[in-house]
Amino acid sequence: MPNLSVVNMEGKAVGTIELADSVFGIEPNAAVMHQMVVNYLAAQRQGTQSALTRAEVSGGGKKPWRQKGTGRARQGSTRAPQWTHGGIVFAPKPRSYRFTVNKKVRRLAMKSALSSKVMGNEVVVVDSIKVDDYKTKTIVAMLKAVEAEKKALIVLADADSKVVKSANNIPGVKTAHVSTLNVYDILNADKLVIAKDAVSKIEEVYA
């Protein structure tokens, strides 16, 4: 089982924690992680683009010139796609890009992402992540102390508005709690800063 040091918000070691092999110690599966990243990015797409086909643009009811005898190509409408102001061929229409991934694959991808971070020494376990007030500098100081100053994902056991709002305007820093954790955010972060109580909750959910 992987063992990690537990630090406080000042970066000082206060103990160790044994991580569950079934969640943090599996062989990462790159294919399912890729599938979940594609799924996440597809779900972010708005799908609101829209254009008019030749059936929807106004005008074009009259044949511009007679069929034969002019020397020009035959035309039936000034709103055909080859005309300026004509309709768009295969015009995009509002749609959803979402697709579903089955539960077993989602769970395997999550465990693979967590295990890959442990293997890369990119996980920091903090005994407790708490702030008394809405203070960005408190979170900045913590990230500096645990050497996670670049792209960091702070994982909490439950939603904590003070921590979330204190970290909101720090560039490259995101917050999540166990129920909102996703593969994309885990892989996108340089360091995973997890509260100790969140570790046990993750193991409870995914073991």
Map the helices and strands.
Elements: E1 3-7, E2 13-18, H1 21-24, H2 30-44, H3 103-119, E3 123-126, H4 136-145, E4 152-156, H5 161-167, E5 173-177, H6 183-188, E6 191-195, H7 196-206
Parallel strand pairs: 1-3, 3-6, 4-5, 4-6
Antiparallel strand pairs: 1-2
Helix pairs in contact: 2-3, 4-5
Helix/sheet category: alpha/beta
Q: Segments where pLDDT lies below 50 for 5+ residues?
A: none
Q: What is the tally of helical segments?
A: 7
Shape: elongated
Main sheet, how many strands, which sense, barrel? 6 strands, mixed
Fraction of residues in β-strands: 5-15%
Overall pLDDT confidence:
93
Radius of gyration: 27 Å
Walk me through what this model shows.
The chain is of the alpha/beta class. 34% of the residues lie in helices and 14% in strands. It is built from seven helices and six strands, in the order E-E-H-H-H-E-H-E-H-E-H-E-H. The chain has a six-stranded mixed sheet with strand order 2-1-3-6-4-5. Helix 5 (161-167) links the parallel strand 4 (152-156) and strand 5. Helix 2 (30-44) crosses helix 3 and helix 4 crosses helix 5. The longest helix has 17 residues, at 103-119. It is elongated. The two termini are 13 Å apart. The mean pLDDT is 93.
Structural descriptors:
single chain; 207 residues; alpha/beta; 6-stranded mixed β-sheet; 7 helices; 6 strands
